[in-house]
Design a protein that fits this description.
The protein has seven helices and three strands, in the order H-H-H-E-H-H-E-E-H-H. It is mostly helical. It folds into two domains: about 70 residues; about 120 residues, Winged helix-like DNA-binding domain superfamily/Winged helix DNA-binding domain (Arc Repressor Mutant, subunit A).
Length: about 190
């Protein structure tokens, strides 16, 4: 079995936020005619990609720590806020965030204890509850979530329209190919 670099082995000597591994970038730019990545190159790129994804996650983790909540609680609050104009159920939050329902339930219990959310009957359902911000939640959570959105949007505005579009298309394509590959190999 071929060995590929692990995400935590790539750029071990670099600090978060430093530019990507120059030698990897240079090797990819050296032969623009080569259209297909070799397994070693693909493994190194994937390892770097994973490291970068964890760095993005780490930014959100830093935000959660500043606000005194867990990562899952932060992502759940962001999802509730994203759906503030329409009721959202616990199951929908779990699907949106790709989290187990029990994980979402545990986080919602903590958020309810803080007084930030309320569970109200979902229109058209006897059992399902909608998760909404309480008045305290609106007052305390929305300002902190706005700070996060400001950071997200400000960082994206540093891209050109073409770069932003390419980033989204590449990520969508990666997800599609990864799902397809995993469906074939699991």
């Amino acid at each position: 079995m071929e060995q590929y670099p692990k995400w935590n082995e790539v750029l071990d000597d670099q600090q978060p936020g430093q530019p990507c591994q120059d030698s990897l970038q240079n090797s990819l730019q050296a032969d623009p005619v080569q259209q297909v990545l070799q397994p070693g190159e693909a493994g190194a790129i994937h390892a770097l990609f994973m490291k970068l994804m964890f760095e993005i996650w780490d930014v959100y983790s830093d935000c959660a720590r500043v606000f005194g909540i867990t990562d899952n609680e932060l992502f759940i609050l962001l999802d509730i806020e994203e759906n503030i104009s329409r009721p959202i159920s616990q199951a929908q939050i779990a699907r949106n965030l790709c989290l187990p329902v029990q994980t979402v339930n545990s986080a919602l219990v903590k958020l309810k204890q803080k007084g930030w959310i309320d569970l109200v009957p979902l229109e058209g359902s006897r059992k399902t509850k909608a998760v909404i911000f309480s008045e305290k939640g609106k007052a305390e959570c929305l300002p902190m979530l706005e700070k996060i959105h400001h950071g997200e949007v400000t960082s994206i505005t540093e891209f050109s329209k073409e770069e932003a579009s390419r980033l989204i298309l590449l990520l969508q394509n990666y997800i599609r190919l990864f799902r397809s590959s995993m469906a074939r190999h699991l």
